[in-house]
2-dehydropantoate 2-reductase
Amino acid sequence: MQIGILGVGAIGQLLAQQLAAAGLEPWLLPRANTPPLAEQGEEQVYTLELGDQSLQTSFLCLAQDSSKLKQLDLLLVTVKAYQVEAALEPLLPKLHPDCRILLLHNGLGPHQSLAAKLNGRPLSLGTTSQAALKLSSNHIRQTGRGLTQIGDLSGAPTPEAMKTALLNAIPGSQWSDAILEALWQKLAVNAVINPLTAIHRVNNGALAAPEFEGTICAILDELLQVAKQEGIALTFDALHARVKEVIRLTAANYSSMYQDLKHGRKTEIDYINGYLQQRAEQYGLTLPINSELVAQIKALEPRN
Ligand SMILES: NC(=O)c1ccc[n+]([C@@H]2O[C@H](COP(=O)([O-])OP(=O)(O)OC[C@H]3O[C@@H](n4cnc5c(N)ncnc54)[C@H](OP(=O)(O)O)[C@@H]3O)[C@@H](O)[C@H]2O)c1
C-alpha cells in the first residue's frame, strides 16, 4: 500500500513520522521545490521532536507532477481547510481513479465543494486532536496527544487492510462509522473555543467563566438548528457537556485561531462558524451569534 501526504506542515509531518514508524514509508508532496525535485523524487530528512527525543527520518519527496502519483493508493490531505481545493484539484487528474482521498483538516466544507470533482473517487474524512508545531520546513515538535477519528464519506469503503494499517500506525486513532457526526461534534467544540478565545485573547480555560455561558449556549443552539436540517443527530446536553469538558481538559492551551491571529495568519473561521452560516443560508435560517463571531474574526485577520 502506497500512501502520499499532501500538506507537509505540522500535522502532515507528524502523521508521516507515525506512518514511517509503523513501516508504511509514505511519500511526501511538498510545495514546489526550488530547484525542482527529480522525476523519481528525492530523499529528504525530516525531524520530529517528542519530549527530549529527536527522531530523524528520510522520506521520498515527490514533485506535484511526478508520474509516481499514479501509484498512490491513499492520499492524506493535511493542508489548512482554506487550502484544500487549491492544493488537491490540480492533483486529481494525476492520481489513479481508485486512489482514496482522506481529508484531515479542521472544520467542514471542502468535502462538499469537492464532491462533484471527485467523479466517484473514494473519499474519507478525519479529525485529529494530536498537536504539532512546525519549527522549520523539515522540523516539527509534537505538542499534544489525542484522539484521531477517521471514517468513510463516499465511494468504495476503505479496504480492511488499509484501515488496520492506519489505525495501527496513528496513536489514539479509531474508526468512525458515522464520521460526519463525529466531525460535527468537533465543529461544535471549535465553533465555541476558537472564536471566543481569539476575540477575547484568552486561553481555553478562561471560557469556563460564567460570563461566557450565555454565548456558548447560543452558539450551540444555532449549530443544532443547522445540524437538524442536515440530518445530523446531536443533542444540546451532549454537545454542551463535551465543550465544557474540552475547556477543562485543555485549560492551559491557546486555540489555533488565537495563535493564527497572534502570528498574523488567516484563520479557518470560514470552515467553522462560517460553515454553519453558509449551510444555514441554504435553509433560510439566520445565525446571529455565529455570524457576529465570523465578522469579528474577519475584522481581526490580516488584510492581503
Ligand atoms: N498543528 C496542529 O497541532 C493541528 C492539530 C489539529 C488539527 N490541525 C489541523 O490540521 C490542518 C493542518 O494544520 P497544520 O498546523 O499542519 O498547518 P501547516 O503547518 O500550515 O501545514 C499545512 C501545509 O500545507 C502546505 N500547503 C498549503 N497549500 C499547499 C499546496 N497547494 N500544495 C502543497 N502544499 C501546500 C503548507 O505549505 P506552506 O507552509 O508553504 O503554505 C504547509 O506546509 C489544519 O486544518 C489544522 O487546523 C492542526
